[in-house]
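Practice problem 4.
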């Protein structure tokens, strides 16, 4: 795998504001993808974007599936007799492009359905389903950009669910703002740990 540094990040052509923030704090820094994911002053969105644009394409749907599986219980607790999300994750892990392509319309439907930003159980379940569909769809694309986008979508839906459930808990149990912020950070940390594991594997495979 390539070393992460300012030259590599400029090649990726990310959002300018992300890159400029990186230069402000880490202009002379250089390291592995896993080490990049640990940098304190780099935001989660930039870390996620660099990660999905750096790991091998064949790993993208596996990462997306792992992230989606983290929140599978959210969908299945709301829809206990519906195995669509679980099957979508299985398809993502199989890397069966012929079967995975069938999830494109499903992913679009789930995204369109979840047009409400209200944090509640219904929207959390919809995001869980969308994450599973996006994971499967990421296995279907031969186009790199489409593959990356689908995997990023899965991660975004997982992140949304963290916000849903934290907000629901705050409303239900009277959780104060400080606890809410800590819980949100813990959710982000859990997602980063998944990405760091794949970064380590990719580095080992490239040696």
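Answer key:
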């Amino acid at each position: 795998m390539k070393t992460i540094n300012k030259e590599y990040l400029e090649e990726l052509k990310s959002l300018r504001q992300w890159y400029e923030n990186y230069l402000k704090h880490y202009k002379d820094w250089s390291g592995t993808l896993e080490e990049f994911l640990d940098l304190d002053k780099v935001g989660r969105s930039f870390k996620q974007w660099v990660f999905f644009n750096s790991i091998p394409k064949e790993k993208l749907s596996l990462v997306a599936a792992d992230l989606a599986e983290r929140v599978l219980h959210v969908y299945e607790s709301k829809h206990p007799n519906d195995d669509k999300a679980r099957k979508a994750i299985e398809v993502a892990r199989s890397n069966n492009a012929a079967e995975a392509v069938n999830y494109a319309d499903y992913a679009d439907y789930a995204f369109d359905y979840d047009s409400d930003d209200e944090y509640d159980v219904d929207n959390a379940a919809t995001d869980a389903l969308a994450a599973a569909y996006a994971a499967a769809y990421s296995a279907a694309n031969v186009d790199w950009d489409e593959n990356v986008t689908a995997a990023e979508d899965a991660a975004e839906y997982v992140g949304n669910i963290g916000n849903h459930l934290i907000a629901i808990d705050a409303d239900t149990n009277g959780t104060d703002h400080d606890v809410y912020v800590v819980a949100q950070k813990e959710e982000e940390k859990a997602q980063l740990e998944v990405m760091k594991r794949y970064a380590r594997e990719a580095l080992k495979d490239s040696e």
